[in-house]
Amino acid sequence: MFLEREEYAILRSHVHADSVDLVDALAATGLRWSEMAALPPRDLTLHGSRPMLRVQRAWKRIDGGKALGAPKTKRSRRTLVLSPYLVQPFKRNCAGKQPNDFVFTAPEGGAWDSGGFYHAWTRAVSTMRVGRPRSPPRPVTASPNDRVSTTSVTRPQSHDLSHTHASWLIAKKVPLPGIQARLGHESITTTVDRYGHPLAMLDDEIIEAIEWSMNPMAA
Length: 219
Hints:
Layout: H1 5-14, H2 20-29, H3 33-36, E1 44-45, E2 52-55, E3 58-62, E4 65-69, E5 78-81, H4 84-94, H5 114-126, E6 132-133, E7 153-154, H6 160-171, H7 176-183, H8 188-194, H9 196-199, H10 203-214
Antiparallel strand pairs: 1-2, 2-5, 3-4, 6-7
């Protein structure tokens, strides 16, 4: 699910105060949950003209448990530029912490557990009205003329913040290789296949570029 900016603002307004900075960081970087939950202060550069975030570790499931390890793939080990919007939230969450601590910690202290964040997330989306109509599977015996209820709604999942981040970059015409690198995709084919629908928004720009190229008299 790709959230519009207005929809994200609604969702954010329903997130508990102790999770707002974390949700903003996910939406504004496109990081996977496993990467953001493992982020240490040492991997942030928050001073200077170009703040940066380095993805060098992530939570991994091992033998029924979890442990810190290298990111998912080789390209997942990456460096992202940060917008000024995120500098203060990151500074706020790094205050008083050691270089190897976690930037974002659970309300009760310690590392965020995916289950704990899932409950915080579902509590937020259950009180909001952002969602997409979802048609249930049509029964095998149904005829084309039968009416099928579409009253159920698909709610955004936390990983949809990464998809939303990509769709916002596409809307602002960020080149696909830049989006691929930011999300840590191994292949640009993954980027194109996953975000084909938002990419359709660029059709008008593509047509305009072709018309300009083929017409020497165009401005």
